[in-house]
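Hi, here's the filled form for the chain we discussed.

Project: internal
Contact: R.S.
Residues: 477
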Amino acid sequence: MKYISTRGDQTPRGFSDILLEGLAPDGGLYLPTHYPQVDAATLARWRGLPYASLAFEILSLYIDDIPAADLQRLCDATYTETVFGTPQITPVQPIGAADEGLLLQALSNGPTLAFKDMAMQLLGKLFEYELARRGEALNILGATSGDTGSAAEYAMRGRRGIQVFMLSPKGRMSPFQQAQMFSLQDANIHNIAVVGVFDDCQDIVKAVSNDLAFKRDFKIGTVNSINWARLLAQVVYYFAGYFQATSGRVQATPERVSFAVPSGNFGNICAGHVARSMGLPIAQLVLATNENDVLDEFFRTGTYRPRATAETHETSSPSMDISKASNFERFVFDLLGRDGARTQELFGAALARDGGFTITPAEHARIAGYGFVSGKSTHADRLATIRSTWQASGVLVDTHTADGLKVAREHRQKGVPMIVLETALPAKFAATILEATGVNPEPPAALRGIEALPKRFVEMTADVGAVKRYIELNCPA
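And the returned structure, exactly as it came back:
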């Protein structure tokens, strides 16, 4: 399997190369030259596999430059009951009223209580493996709106040959999210609180990655979902959720399901797009936004209009307070028939010149063929959904998952199970949960009192040059 850029660079690259590279040299994102297809027989063969074995089967379709025995070992070491708390790894359970047909897929049982652990735990092992194989080091530069940072840092802390420089928007995360990152004292972890919003942090990461000389000299890589390896690992739980939702109902024609996905940077739902493109029987991919509804606007109208920093709302689902969705380019590339020149025009020239773009009516009409629908959730919706779910099911959901549930209810189809992807445990957003239900969710015992721990971070303005200088000063000699 080889990989190409969304912006027209057709130079084929192997998985191990793009694992360490992040953005393509032309500023695009990597995608495989094609999506391997799975049929009913393959789905039947995969049904019932342990999660680690399922991960190996799917990743093997995209990775041919890591020996199979090594890849199996990495999957087996990552997806364990010890790390994720259950043998299913991502268990599925009914939620809401019995007649709604809604299911909740738990993705937040890893070390940092968020779905980002599902990919990041594997990514840490892949990085360490490949760096050791090459005898190289890597400086990871990332941006987080809340959960990516802690998941990356917990996965990379203490790993040989790896330094992590993580940008986060100052004051824009929940106290628990902030404490998870800033309380780490590992020498290879560097937290940078940027005065601005997540999009400012993400812009800096892209600017540094697009400086090819700096990227080469300081061996810059990324763990954001612009890294294909991370998105690929997320594809696995769509298959795992499908198998659980359709357990005991195997038919000649595989039953369809839908997935509702809280969406900020478009990585989580882009993994669903990949799974559907492979042949997983997904009826709908339901995209849920919060008040920062740039993506909902696009899917409804065909206009993509990222907001400026001052227009980006600070909400009670802060990990989705994003107005520039990096992974969105991957879907648009597919939507445009993999036309790299057209993608370059939209995400390069049009964004820079006009601050956004509008696709043609014919292009917008193609969206239905990819199964996407969308909707928006507000703080009032969040409170109502958390409260009603608690009353009906005795289950507390976090604020982002509540956004997903709210929009999922608007797009249910009779006879089609609707799987809502959980994004985090409610303890990470305790203030809103308490407001909605009167219940103060407790974190696991190992993380209680984390907000009171000493914090280690630096603060700086949203300046690319300042971040580069900080990296230079803190890279090992």
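Let me know if anything looks off before we file it.
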